[in-house]
Design goal:
Elements (H helix, E strand, L loop, with lengths): L1 H13 L9 H26 L7 H14 L24 H4 L1 H21 L5 H22 L4
Bound molecules: ascorbic acid.
Ascorbic acid binds next to helix 2 and helix 6.
């Protein structure tokens, strides 16, 4: 019995950091990673929509799928304890935390608009996709205007 207890303690000490609950810093890094992935894909789509590069329907559809997959993950990264950090800079505005319902509504909008864009990308051409793309851009901006601090 004693042996088992000692083994448990030893194993407990050996548990690496990632098995433990996520910290506020982890949450900030997680959501920033998602925002960067969104931006990477959205920027490429924007270049196609604005005719700065040739329209590639398969690629556009793949990128639209990625936006639709990433958008519902964002909210998870805004957990209690991740409001501010000593070590990881965040531009999440203080209003976000006491207007959480409004913030969640805007996140919901982003989910809906990215899903609509991904659906449209299955059959629309560039001109047909432009309004759907514009609605995603508006959803990004609506939230940034309220809940992202200025640079
Ligand atoms: C981007 C980017 C944003 C959005 C926003 C859309 O490429 O970095 O924050 O698009 O400008 O309105």
């Amino acid at each position: 019995m004693k042996k088992a207890w000692i083994l448990g303690v030893l194993l407990g000490l050996a548990v690496p950091g990632w098995v433990m609950a996520a910290s506020g810093d982890d949450a900030i890094e997680y959501r920033q990673g998602l925002f960067r992935a969104l931006k990477w894909n959205f920027t490429d789509m924007g270049a196609m929509i604005q005719e700065r590069k040739p329209f590639d329907a398969a690629r556009f559809a793949q990128e639209a799928d990625r936006l639709a997959a990433l958008a519902p993950m964002l909210g998870e990264g805004f957990i209690k304890g991740s409001e501010k950090s000593e070590t990881v800079p965040t531009r999440a505005a203080s209003e976000l935390w006491y207007q959480r319902d409004r913030f969640d509504q805007l996140m919901q909008q982003l989910e809906e608009k990215t899903a609509a864009l991904a659906e449209a990308a299955k059959h629309e051409d560039r001109d047909g996709l432009r309004p759907y793309f514009g609605q995603v851009a508006q959803a990004c901006k609506a939230c940034h205007d309220r809940y992202r601090e200025r640079d």
